Amino acid sequence: MTTLLIGVYRTEQDVSMTIEELMEAGAERKEISIVSNQHNDLEQIAEDTGMKPFSGGYGARGILNTLEQLASDLRVMPQRAAVSGPGAKLLAGAETGSRSDDLIVRLTAIGIPKDDARAYAAEVRRGHLLMMVTSEAEDAAGKMAIMEKHDVKPVSI
């Protein structure tokens, strides 16, 4: 049975160290997804770990991404989730602003309870990084121990 492990991290360095240790323990990149509202964080994580570059919805690359990031920083338009890993298909481009429940809806669509999804979306909105790791049940405790070792942020749910 497959289990979804979730951790919230304050920095891309913590995420990179966690990914590297998970992979040393046998995890595969295709089991790991990272969600952020800061595209630069995911670019750095991809460079540090070899993860695939992120997806961020329309304008994810080049000048359009730069303009979209500037507009969202100025609060002219909502921020959009940037996602690396298999979660990109469902989560990339979700609006993460305080007036949008888009990311919450998408998280619930992958099986996360609504109250939990609301808490995780709030953390992404605050600039933290959400890591999701799929695991077989027998490997879940070991992977979660690695995730918790790298300054995972407690989330009140």
UniProtKB/TrEMBL annotation:
Span of domain General stress protein 17M-like: 5-66
Pfam families in UniProt: YflT
Official protein name in the record: General stress protein
